């Protein structure tokens, strides 16, 4: 099965991607998948398909919702750590350290069970207009995911803000830009541009964190598969399908980000 | 308002249970991390110097592990690993064994960490100036000795930032084993909180313990990093 060693040269490697041993590997993979389809039990799949679809939507909503909100929080978190007064700098740094130093599962349970047990004690909260949401699980999941994303991305934004060459900021000041205009026109765009490449990896990591919210009864993709496993007593088939779905989602994210990254001009920067 | 006596070390309090959970967490984190390092070292060498088949299989391993959520991987490896071992034992006419949560946990965390360490170590080995290894080969040092004397010490300064990050991830990934019912810190915290109904107190206490691990690790990593970089020209 072994063939001649791979040529080190990148171009010739791309030409001869399909090598005999790769063909054999692909055949083995196809055989394994066929065996899983033929010998596994898949009769549950059509019944659960609508629920899997809604679970997928919940997962994607949680991913993009928390990434978007988290990124909006991360920008001020990073900025005050670089330029803020000490009474903003210290809490922001402490927040990032604390969130990044504890497991997300613990934060999630702290919010859901901890805060969730404190809220009903507040008198008059049942008349509060957000109460119907506070009784559900997903706002806690979204909050925990958002906080976690904000802390990790905030640390990256701190580096991005600090990494903008000071000459550019001095030039902006020399043009008489006000601090707000300098931030809006020069500092923020340059920092965002520096932070963008990391966004891909962080979003993939965030996708891989979303199944945790199933532990607080949010029915996302993982929650649906857990239900399947409880109701059909199957172990492997649902889990393998779940792993496959997450792999496809990761691949889509990676390729989508790569596409957009290539469209952002980087010349001369 | 806050009943601090709940954190007492002796049985009416849950402090001792929490510390026991912390110990399990540390055991799994250390064991899984070390297993991951061994996998990573061999994986990196396989990716750099292995045959085409080994390279492709390792590529599949690292890609799949890094694309699937840890929680799902842990479930699959936990069930599949114990199942596979018991089937093998049955095939060899041995009694089925009940695999201890500790061993299963270390195995699962090790496999996950191995994929990430493979990439970190591969990158670190590639950033060693090639002249150093060529010089060692020119002296006719056997490959195993080159690995031990030249490659590993020379790659350490490049690998330590990535590897220390992986250690911090390992300590936090152990919390996921709570989902398969292993009594590490997060799960015992939840049990303590559920029994006493003081959720905030226990979750905050566990958070403080995790944070302490992270902060102490960071301090030690700082010392290690400075030591491994001695004699190197500053990069920054």
UniProtKB/TrEMBL annotation, chain A:
UniProtKB keywords: Cell inner membrane, Cell membrane, Membrane, Transmembrane, Transmembrane helix, Transport
Bilayer-spanning residue ranges: 23-40, 52-80, 239-260
InterPro entries, sorted: AA_ABC_transptr_permease_3TM, ArtM/GltK/GlnP/TcyL/YhdX-like, MetI-like, MetI-like_sf
Domain ABC transmembrane type-1, first and last residues per copy: 56-257
Gene Ontology molecular-function annotations: transmembrane transporter activity
GO biological process: amino acid transport
Source species, domain of life: Bacteria
Protein's UniProt keywords contain Cell inner membrane: yes
Subcellular location(s) of the protein: Cell inner membrane; Cell membrane
Membrane topology: Multi-pass membrane protein
A Pfam entry, by short name: BPD_transp_1
Annotated Gene Ontology cellular component terms: ATP-binding cassette (ABC) transporter complex
Family stated for the protein in its record: Belongs to the binding-protein-dependent transport system permease family. HisMQ subfamily.
Protein name, per record: ABC transporter permease
Species per Swiss-Prot/TrEMBL record: Paracoccus methylarcula
């Amino acid at each position: 099965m072994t063939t001649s060693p791979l040529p080190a040269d990148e171009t010739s490697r791309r030409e001869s991607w399909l090598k005999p041993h790769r063909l054999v590997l692909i055949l083995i993979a196809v055989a394994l998948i066929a065996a899983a389809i033929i010998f596994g039990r898949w009769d549950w799949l059509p019944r659960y398909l609508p629920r899997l679809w809604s679970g997928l939507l919940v997962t994607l909503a949680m991913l993009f919702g928390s990434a978007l909100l988290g990124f909006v929080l991360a920008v001020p978190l990073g900025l005050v750590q670089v330029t803020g007064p000490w009474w903003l700098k210290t809490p922001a740094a402490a927040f990032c350290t604390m969130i990044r130093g504890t497991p997300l599962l613990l934060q999630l349970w702290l919010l859901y069970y901890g805060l969730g047990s404190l809220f009903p004690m507040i008198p008059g909260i049942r008349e509060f207009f957000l109460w119907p949401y506070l009784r559900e699980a997903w706002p806690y999941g979204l909050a925990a995911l958002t906080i976690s994303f904000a802390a990790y991305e905030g640390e990256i934004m701190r580096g991005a803000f600090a990494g903008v060459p000071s000459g550019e900021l001095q030039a902006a000041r020399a043009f008489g830009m006000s601090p707000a205009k300098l931030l809006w026109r020069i500092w923020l765009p340059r920092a965002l541009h520096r932070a963008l490449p990391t966004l891909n990896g962080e979003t993939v990591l965030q996708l891989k964190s979303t199944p945790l919210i199933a532990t607080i009864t949010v029915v996302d993709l993982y929650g649906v598969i857990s239900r399947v496993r409880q109701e059909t007593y199957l172990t492997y088939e649902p889990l393998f399908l779940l792993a496959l779905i997450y792999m496809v989602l990761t691949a889509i994210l990676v390729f989508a980000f790569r596409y957009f990254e290539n469209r952002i001009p980087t010349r001369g920067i | 308002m806050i009943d601090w006596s709940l954190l007492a070390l002796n049985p009416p309090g849950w402090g001792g249970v929490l510390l026991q959970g912390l110990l399990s967490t540390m055991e799994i984190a250390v064991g899984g991390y070390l297993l991951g390092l061994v996998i990573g070292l061999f994986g990196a060498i396989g990716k750099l110097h292995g045959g085409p088949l080994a390279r492709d299989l390792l590529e599949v391993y690292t890609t799949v592990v890094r694309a699937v959520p840890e929680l799902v991987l842990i479930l699959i490896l936990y069930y599949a690993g114990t199942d596979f071992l018991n089937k093998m034992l049955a095939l060899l006419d041995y009694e089925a064994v009940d695999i201890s949560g500790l061993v299963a946990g270390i195995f699962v965390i090790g496999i996950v960490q191995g994929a990430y360490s493979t990439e970190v170590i591969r990158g670190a080995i590639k950033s060693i100036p090639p002249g150093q290894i060529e010089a060692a080969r020119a002296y006719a040092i056997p490959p195993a000795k080159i690995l031990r004397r030249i490659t590993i010490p020379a790659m350490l300064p490049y690998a330590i930032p990535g590897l220390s990050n992986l250690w911090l991830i390992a300590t936090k990934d152990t919390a996921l084993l709570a989902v398969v019912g292993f009594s590490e810190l997060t799960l015992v915290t939840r049990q303590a909180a559920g029994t006493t109904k003081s959720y905030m107190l226990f979750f905050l206490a566990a958070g403080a313990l995790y944070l302490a691990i992270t902060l102490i690790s960071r301090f030690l990593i700082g010392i290690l990093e400075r030591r491994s970089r001695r004699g190197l020209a500053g990069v920054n």
